[in-house]
Amino acid sequence: MRSCLLASALLALFTTSLAAAEAPVYGPQLEGFEYPYTLQHFSFESQGNTVEMGYMDVAATSKANGHTVVLMHGKNFCAATWESTIKTLASAGYRVVAPDQIGFCTSSKPEHYQYSFQQLATNTHALLEKLGIKEAMVLGHSTGGMLATRYALSYPQDTERLMLVNPIGLEDWKALGVPYRSVDEWFAREVKLSADSIREYERKTYYGGRWEPGYERWVSMLAGLNQGPGHNLVAWNSALIYDMIFTQPVYYEFRNLRVPTLLLVGTADTTAIGSDIAPPDVKARLGHYDRLGKEVAGMIPNAKLVEFPGLGHAPQMEEPERFHRALIEWLAQPAPTAAARP
After folding, report:
1. Which of 163, 133, 126 is nearest to 148 (CA)?
2. Would you give the DSSP letter of residue 253?
3. Is 0.85 surpassed by the pTM of this model?
4. Residue 7 predicted with pLDDT over 60
């Protein structure tokens, strides 16, 4: 019996080790992970560093309509996760630019960088200027929704329309009572990330306990980046970015937006930064997207809300046909007159 138990234990250990060995690992700029469209890099000087932004610039695959859509990814996402949205928009006649922000995915992970949504918006604007794009429609998901909001506030004359997909920052977590977590504490958390912890967090928070095999690619993308040769640098930049998200709310400025805005919200989402360390009474009040979407839509002038009951944090990935139908229908509506624009 003891021999059988020992053999079983050794077999389990071997299987776990084999699975770990087979798990993909990627370079500090996600080298080795395949992007759906040609990946390019924009090199520029920022805060004393020469940094690179990875991006995809995809031309319209049907008759071009003269409009460009810029896609801004979330914290646990990359430009590559916009794959089906890029295909849909390009087939509808749009040029699509999908960058990876500094600190993320295929872009630089500086050893020292003062992260702010203003800085990331400035970086993105510089990329668009380099590409010769004067005016763009901006679509942001999750943390990308906070960035897209800041971009539209900073460059209203250059923002044709604003679209937010389950943006975080629809509430100010710190003001609601979530304890502050230092950068060092964020780093200690991020350095321990694994495929299992990423999957469990996303299943529970993003998808209401559901999980689809198609999501595994994005889990291995994040885990492979974190577990690769840039392990500590990736975790450090991630910690700095979490501090930016928590301490730089855009919530109080939604009412200042002056561009036509579409909110696309999966109502089953419960994402709230820091909810894992919030007191129970505080946690119970956070991340109610079925309420938050309506509240923020009422704050933004010229806003339209489209809700997806039962869907979670990434409706564009959960039910892409339904999501893209709503997006394309809104984009096809006539733009406001010049008098209504800033």
Report:
1. 163
2. G
3. yes
4. no
